[in-house]
Fold:
Amino acid sequence: MADQYEIADNTELFYKCSKCGRMFEPEDNGNSTCPVCGNSCNTDSCKLVDGSNEDY
Ligand SMILES: [Zn+2]
Structure:
């Protein structure tokens, strides 16, 4: 049996690197390192974007 209502709250967030613009999955709930340029991303330095909705 699957609980369907759990899916509704499953929004996938990505960091958008402030240096190179690359979007990548956060490693934890905190800091993550950009796999492309090595820039250290957190909620202050990089933008969090909804992976299903690219915003420009
Ligand atoms: Zn980067």
The pocket of zinc ion is lined by residues 17, 19-20, 22, 34, 36-37, 39 (CB under 6 Å). The chain has one domain: 10-50.
